[in-house]
Amino acid sequence: TEDIILPLMAVSTQDLQAADELQVSPNPATDVLNISVSGADEEQLHVELLDLSGRSVLRQAWNKEALNIAELAAGQYVLRLIGEKKMWVQRIVKE
């Protein structure tokens, strides 16, 4: 067996309720992820992709455009969209 350790961040109940506000498609994806989020209130957002070991493989300001993931290795990732007051999280698959 293999252990996988992911770093955790404490979030408030409000943050957890925001999970259904994030839409990512297609999932699985091969080269581009389309991301939409409601409830962001025009704040500056950053997008981050973590591999399953918890290592950040991509982090950038999100300007509401499609996210290019063509250079990433195939596998599972955790997508985090990070705002000033909220963080949205979704698992994605890169084929």
What's the arrangement of secondary structure elements?
Layout lengths: L12 H5 L4 E4 L6 E6 L7 E7 L4 E7 L4 E2 L6 E8 L4 E8 L1
Antiparallel strand pairs: 1-2, 2-5, 3-4, 3-6, 6-7
Would you mind describing this structure in some detail?
The protein is mainly beta. It has one helix at 13-17, and strands spanning 22-25, 32-37, 45-51, 56-62, 67-68, 75-82, 87-94. It has a single domain (13-94), classed as Immunoglobulin-like. A 4-stranded antiparallel β-sheet has the order 4-3-6-7, with no helix packed on it. Strands 1-2-5 form a 3-stranded antiparallel β-sheet, with no helix packed on it. A hairpin with a 4-residue loop joins β6 and β7 (87-94). The radius of gyration is 13 Å and the shape is globular. The two termini are 24 Å apart.
